[in-house]
Give the backbone structure.
Amino acid sequence: MKTLTLTIIGALFIIFVGTSMHFFYEASGYNYFVGSFSPVNESVWEHLKMAFFPSILWILIELTQLRKTINNYFVSKALGTYTMVFLIPLIYYIYNAFMEDNIIIDIGSFFAAVIIGQIASYLLFNRTKKSTVQQYIAVIAIVLLALMFIVFTFYPPHLTVFQDPNTGQYGI
């Protein structure tokens, strides 16, 4: 019951903090440090930060409660976080193939991705035996994605996913 409660609280936390993050960079006076972990433009890639970084913060908060009760905590959380980051652009590009950009669908897809990611983590808790190697690989996967978000904020590849559809610019 404790893990289910924390999963629900985590989804609400990620949604609230992630939604708030949309405005952090501008509110900070365009501070580069803040831009490292919050969206700096309207590109799909930058908006993934709104799910990823609050998820990382929630992982650290939740870890204090669950570290001794979950066999594969980091594997579960890594897969849940990657699920969120995968679903947001998937939904965005599928619906944009059939209709124009829609803020309601964008927000709904963010909420849905967070909820599905949290459910995925929850369902994976204690599904497998504890493996230290898998835990390390999961942590490395999370750290690598965090580094990609930071590096691509300043040096984004010139691909559509990194391009601000309003300005045509990339990154900061």
Observations:
- The chain has seven helices and no strands.
- The mean pLDDT is 93.
